[in-house]
Design goal:
78% helix; mainly alpha; Four Helix Bundle (Hemerythrin (Met), subunit A)
């Protein structure tokens, strides 16, 4: 299996686990809250790395940071809301340093209300884009 297909499969599995975490989520349970945040971190990481791999398959190399990959994804119309993706990146970067229950709850609410839909939409757009490779 090629690299981009393996990354896409891993991304979709992580996304499904994130969705499962949302279904089980209870904001008053720190363990479930921490688990949801960790699943989000992992899914976001796979999202940009999958995009990077798809772009490499298309001959576009040198994209080494999430911001450059997201910028290219915007140009390629794989994402539409750059501000939302940059917000996801900021939250992903800050989650390792969360010491506030209030901030953790706020990020969990964004994961449930905004981020998961955007991550699902990306998976669908990537699948549609690579369908012509096969």
């Amino acid at each position: 299996m090629s690299d981009y297909l393996q990354k896409l499969e891993n991304y979709k599995k992580a996304l499904n686990r994130l969705i499962d975490g949302i279904k089980r989520f209870d904001e008053n349970d720190d363990l479930l809250r921490d688990g949801l945040i960790q699943r989000f971190e992992f899914t976001f990481e796979l999202a940009w790395k999958t995009l990077k791999s798809v772009f490499a398959e298309e001959g576009l190399t040198g994209l080494n940071s999430p911001k450059t990959v997201l910028r290219e994804a915007l140009i390629a119309e794989l994402i539409n809301d750059e501000e939302l993706w940059l917000d996801m990146l900021k939250d992903r970067n800050s989650t390792a340093h969360i010491y506030s229950e209030q901030i953790a709850k706020k990020i969990c609410n964004k994961i449930k209300s905004k981020y998961v839909n955007e991550l699902q939409g990306l998976a669908e757009k990537i699948e549609k884009r690579i369908s012509h490779y096969r």
